[in-house]
Design goal:
Elements (H helix, E strand, L loop, with lengths): L8 H9 L10 E2 L5 E2 L8 E2 H18 L3 H4 L5 H13 L6 E4 L2 H14 L6 E5 L4 H14 L5 E5 L7 H5 L4 E7 L11 H10 L3 E5 L18 E4 L13 E5 L43 H10 L8 H20 L8 E2 L11 E5 L3 H10 L2 E2 L1 E3 L3 E5 L7 H16 L16
Helix pairs in contact: 1-12, 2-9, 4-9, 5-6, 10-12
The structure holds pyridoxal-5'-phosphate (PLP) and (2S)-2-amino-4-(2-amino-3-hydroxyphenyl)-4-oxobutanoic acid.
Organism: Alishewanella longhuensis
Pfam families: KYNU_C (PF22580)
Keywords: Hydrolase, Pyridine nucleotide biosynthesis, Pyridoxal phosphate
């Protein structure tokens, strides 16, 4: 990407005027006087989500009660939503299902993958991976016993190639998050999956910070399994159900551990013995959360006719503009970027280290710029191309510069720790 020489307000407004995604912003409810740079944690609310919630409550559940499972096809929703997510993941039909949380889906997949690798006991992951991924492995290890399952962690700094070197025939499963939740570093799915397969290792990708943010090609990269969140770039709302991808070639061999009735071959036969459903349905466990899943279903319509290459282009351009403007402000020199700048190595966020990152974040929020903080010292900013404008980037950096140059962030109230950061 070429460096824009002069990012004046006029230039940014011009970028908005020629932005092919600009009209998508109207699809979202965005509060006044708020610049939302936290869609990587919780996506903004698509207007259609509110309409669907109203419809499910007031036209379906209230009026049609239990008949709705058939008349409003509630029973098919996990498949329907899975198929809506599939194109965003580069997945052919029949391989993605919407259910449970990312953590729970990880447990199911980790367990399946370990059972497919008799004689191998190690699950390899990044030392800095999102904790729930590591905790789920630790939970599985305590269930199976250390002799059957161990978590191996590597520090995967960009230049040390430790991750690639650690993928050997000793490893059963490689569990990686495509975009690091702290640094925003992007891993190469194609290269790492290929390396893993050469060593007989199965691969699970956590797409929490990439699904809906950048083009993904799970089938083309021969990925085995993947999971991800419905509430970040897919805008499904707080605690939205997650998704799970399992490549068709594995379906017949899988034995998932949470054998609930919804994953049974014939749930309404109420048989005593479990018999898994064929295909991706085997990953269902209990009754789907219909209200939340309906909201996610509606939210996904925002992606209708969207070109993910355009989303990626704008995401990189927004973050590029942000960082460029930061570097133009001498007062922001203490912000140290920890996100790799090359487009091929970053996702849709920027992360800066600063000794007062927490207070800076609180001061930004107070001024209507919603960012977040990740301990111990990271200010994290997410760039969501469907509802952010280029002019917003200029405004956000100006506000940040004001907060720093005036030392406003040193006010005692900004040091008060919130429960959720
Ligand atoms: C990489 C990653 N995986 C998983 C999760 C969350 O999983 P869950 O939806 O189960 O809380 C997050 C964020 O919360 C995440 O950043
Ligand atoms: N899932 C979250 C929640 O329930 C509350 C607050 C934040 C979150 C997050 O998604 C955290 C997120 N995965 C992260 O990247 O830090």
């Amino acid at each position: 990407m070429t460096m824009l020489p002069d990012l004046t307000k006029t230039t940014l407004a011009l970028l908005d005027a020629t932005d092919p995604l600009a009209s998508k912003r109207d699809a979202f409810f965005l509060p006044d006087n708020t610049l939302y740079l936290d869609g990587n944690s919780l996506g903004a609310m698509p207007r259609v989500a509110a309409l669907r919630a109203h419809q499910v409550l007031n036209e379906q559940w209230s009026r049609d009660l239990i008949k709705s499972w058939n008349s409003h096809q509630w029973i098919d929703l996990p498949h329907k939503v899975g198929e809506k997510i599939a194109p965003l993941l580069g997945a052919a039909p029949g391989q993605v299902i919407c259910c449970d949380s990312t953590s729970v889906n990880l447990f199911k997949i980790l367990s399946c993958a370990m059972l497919m690798q008799p004689g191998r006991t190690k699950i390899l992951s990044q030392a800095g991976n999102f904790p729930t991924d590591l905790y789920m492995v630790q939970g599985l290890a305590s269930l199976l016993g250390e002799q059957y399952c161990q978590l191996v962690l590597v520090d995967d700094s960009p230049d040390n190639h430790a991750l690639e070197q650690a993928i050997t025939t000793e490893i059963a499963v490689l569990l990686l998050t495509q975009v690091d939740f702290r640094s925003g570093r992007l891993l190469d799915i194609q290269r790492l999956t290929q390396r893993a397969h050469e060593q007989g290792v199965l691969v699970i990708w956590d797409l929490a910070h990439s699904a809906g943010a950048l083009p993904i090609e799970l089938d083309a990269c021969h990925v085995d399994f993947a999971v991800g969140c419905g509430y970040k770039y897919l805008n499904g709302g707080p605690g939205a159900p997650a998704f799970l991808y399992a490549a068709t070639r594995h379906h017949d061999r899988l034995t998932q551990p949470l054998t609930g009735w919804m994953g049974h071959n014939a749930p309404f036969s109420f048989a005593t013995d479990y018999q898994k459903a064929p295909g991706i349905a085997q990953f269902l466990t209990g009754t789907p959360a219909i209200i939340a899943m309906s909201v996610l279903d509606a939210a996904l319509t925002v992606f209708d006719n969207i070109d993910m290459q355009q989303v990626r282009y704008k995401s990189l351009a927004l973050s590029h503009c942000f960082h460029h403007l930061v570097t133009m402000q001498p007062c922001l020199a203490d912000l140290q970027l920890i996100t790799p700048l090359q487009p091929s190595a970053r996702g849709s966020q920027l992360a800066y280290q600063h000794p007062h990152a927490y207070a800076l974040c609180q001061a930004l929020i107070q001024r209507g710029v919603i960012a977040d903080f990740r301990a111990p010292n990271i200010l994290r900013l997410g760039f969501t191309p469907l509802y952010l404008r280029y002019v917003d980037i200029g405004t956000a950096v100006t506000i940040l510069a004001n907060i720093v140059s005036s030392q406003e962030y040193l006010k005692p109230e900004y040091a008060v720790q919130q429960k959720v950061t």
